[in-house]
Every structure is written in structure tokens, then in C-alpha cells.
Design goal:
Blueprint lengths: L8 E6 L5 H13 L3 E7 L5 H11 L4 E3 L2 H11 L3 E4 L14 E4 L20 E4 L2 H10 L5 E3 L6 H4 L21 E4 L15 H4 L4 E4 L3 H5 L4 H10 L5 E3 L8 H6 L2 E4 L4 H6 L5 E4 L13 H7 L12 E3 L2 H13 L5 H11 L7 H9 L7
Helix pairs in contact: 1-14
């Protein structure tokens, strides 16, 4: 283990609260080695209360910024050793030395923006598995990449004491029942096409609803909030509140995940547990019919080669049947899950954050 001779100062640019799913395991490892970690949170009134509560639980005191320009001035003034970003930051190239920059992208899979050139202007980009290394080097042969794995999954594969587990009984659910985790993305999403009576159709199961952060606050996601309100009235349902940004505690206790165009289905599958992939998505009219190409450009077409990681529900009407079939035969897609996890997620040894910390603290391992 590499320890800091003098405290290395690292800032995390937390553009949205859910980026903490990537940042928190790395922060824990860095602080264990004596580094100083600070966080910039972006001031958004609609989500401010949830972010403040999450920060309190994480025992961090974020510095609030209103814009990328304000964040840039903060980093320029503080002059840390590193700034770690989870999304593109056009001003990163203008930060003066000795500050260096790292891209720890906030998700994997599904969306084509994972390959956008705006993500490639950092001193290093941490990459998950071989799939992303190959694809990025095709596009950017001179890219400065470090293939480390997916930090978000470290708690699932590291020491058990580092993995927070949701307490089913304390939430009023029955630990003896199968537990299903519904974790859709905000767009394009299956959320609006789910039935109001869905919990009653699976009354013999626990249902945990872990929505994307934008589902709670985006004006276009009113239908998502309506569904969550209705479902929360059922005794077999727990709707995760917005300040609980991390899906890992719910993944750890769930037998099966239901998702759609979201990277979480690959994260969950890394545990070698069954996933049901919803192919039914509610698209805006600007993505339908003659505008379908916009939708196709938005999505990462290369991910379709990994579609057999999960059972698929083509329509909502198929969902219950597919879920019950997977619960009855949970190892049906096991070989594909293990194969595709190695390609997309990379190493699942619980040591991803250690490799990232090695690099940030002076032990680079570029691809």
C-alpha cells in the first residue's frame, strides 16, 4: 500500500449527487492513505435538500458552486494536486499546474456520450473493462487511459463490512420473500409504461424502487413521481428517497433487478444474479417515427452485443412472466453474465479504488 509522504489534496467535482456512487469508494481509500479529499457540489434548488442530507450522512462539508465557471475559480484558487471529474468540464485544460485532472465517468453502458471527445481532455481517464479500452483507443489512439475497473462496485466485492446492506425488515418488507429491485433510468425509460397495479401483480415479492435522481426533480418526469406515490401505498413496496443516491445497498439484498436503458443492470449482473431488461421505453415524439435516428445516435449501439446478459421483456404485459421465469431459474444467463462483466465492468476484486488511489498518489499504470 502506498502512503502519502505529505497530504495529497484532491477535489471531486460532484456535478450531481449520484456521482458520489463512483467517488465515495475512492474517497474512502484515499483518506485511508492520508490524502485530503474535498467536494464541490453544484447549487440546484430543486435538489439542494437531498444533497445537503446526503452530505451530512457522508460526513463531508461540500463547497457549493453555482456553475462550472465558479467551480473553475475554486480549483484555480485552491490549486489542489488533482481534480476528479465525473462528466465533461471544458475549462479543465485551463487549470494551471501543478493541478492535474482525472476523468472518473459517472456510469457505463447504454448512452453513446461515454465516447464523446469532451471526456478525453484530462491528464488521465480511468476506464472500466477491456470493451471501453478498445473502443476509446479506436477513436483516440493517443488517449491517456488507466484500465482499473468500476469503482462503484467495490463495496459489492470488497470486505463485507464495507458493503452497506438495506434492512428489509426495518422498512416493513418480508426478508423471507424474493426481493426485486426496479432501477430504471430517467430517459429513455420504462417508468411511464409501468402499470399502477404492478405491486399487486407481484404481491408475493418485495419491490424496491430505486429511481434515477432526475426522476425526482426533472419537470419532465412527473409521471415517474406519480407512479412512485401510487406504488408506495402497497405494503410490499419501498420507494427509495432521493437523498439515498447509492443503489449498492439495495443491490446487495436483491435477488433480481428490473431495469432498462441504464448501466445499473450491468452493475447488478456483476453479482451473477438475474436481470430483466425492459425493452419497452416511452420515447418523446422527437425520438419517434422520422426522428428515430436521434434516439439511435443517443444510444451506444456497441452495447447490443451484450444484450444476452439478461432476460428481456418486450412489453409491459410480458414483465411478470419473465420475472417469474428468472426467479425460477436464476442461473440461466450466468455464463453470459460472467463473460460480459469481465468485458464491461472489468476486474471485480473489490480493489478498483486502490488502483485509482495508486495512480492519484503517484503510481501510474497507463494502458
Amino acid at each position: 500500500m502506498i502512503r502519502c509522504a505529505a497530504p495529497v489534496r484532491i477535489w471531486f467535482d460532484t456535478a450531481h449527487l449520484y456521482y458520489m456512487t463512483q467517488f465515495q469508494p475512492v474517497r474512502r481509500e484515499l483518506e485511508r492513505r492520508g490524502a485530503e479529499c474535498r467536494f464541490a457540489f453544484y447549487r440546484r434548488e430543486e435538489s439542494r435538500a437531498a444533497s445537503e442530507l446526503a452530505a451530512q450522512r457522508l460526513a463531508i462539508e461540500p463547497v457549493w458552486v453555482a456553475s462550472k465557471e465558479e467551480a473553475f475559480e475554486l480549483y484555480r484558487r485552491e490549486a489542489p494536486d488533482w481534480v476528479v471529474f465525473g462528466i465533461a468540464f471544458s475549462l479543465a485544460k485551463d487549470l494551471p499546474r501543478p493541478t492535474r485532472t482525472a476523468m472518473l465517468y459517472h456510469g457505463i453502458g447504454m448512452k453513446a456520450d461515454v465516447y464523446h471527445p469532451s471526456l478525453m481532455g484530462m491528464d488521465v481517464r480511468f476506464v472500466e473493462g477491456p470493451h471501453y479500452t478498445r473502443e476509446l483507443l479506436k477513436l483516440y489512439p493517443d488517449a491517456r487511459l488507466s484500465e482499473v475497473g468500476y469503482a462503484k462496485t467495490d463495496p459489492l466485492f470488497g470486505p463485507p463490512e464495507d458493503c452497506p446492506r438495506f434492512d428489509l425488515a426495518a422498512a416493513g418488507l418480508d426478508p423471507a420473500k424474493p426481493t426485486l429491485l426496479y432501477a430504471p433510468t430517467f430517459y429513455p425509460s420504462s417508468f411511464p409504461l409501468m402499470a399502477d397495479e404492478w405491486p399487486q401483480q407481484l404481491a408475493d415479492c418485495n419491490l424496491i424502487v430505486k429511481a434515477h435522481q432526475f426522476s425526482y426533480f426533472n419537470p419532465r418526469c412527473r409521471s415517474h413521481r406519480r407512479k412512485m406515490t401510487i406504488w408506495s401505498r402497497s405494503p410490499n413496496v419501498h420507494v427509495v428517497p432521493p437523498e439515498e443516491y447509492d443503489a449498492v445497498p439495495y443491490m446487495a439484498v436483491s435477488d433480481l433487478m428490473i431495469s432498462d436503458a441504464s448501466s445499473v443492470l450491468f452493475e447488478f449482473a456483476a453479482q451473477d444474479r438475474p436481470v430483466v431488461w425492459c425493452d419497452f421505453l416511452k420515447l418523446r415524439w422527437t425520438y419517434r417515427g422520422p426522428f428515430k435516428q436521434r434516439f439511435l445516435r443517443r444510444m451506444d449501439g456497441s452495447i447490443r452485443q451484450y444484450a444476452d446478459i439478461a432476460a428481456h421483456a418486450a412489453r409491459y404485459a410480458d414483465l411478470e412472466r419473465v420475472v417469474r421465469a428468472e426467479l425460477a431459474a436464476p442461473m440461466r444467463f450466468s455464463a453470459a453474465r460472467r463473460r460480459h462483466t469481465a468485458e464491461l465492468i472489468g476486474k471485480t476484486d473489490g480493489k478498483v479504488s486502490q488502483r485509482i488511489a495508486d495512480h492519484l498518489l503517484g503510481v501510474p499504470a497507463l494502458v
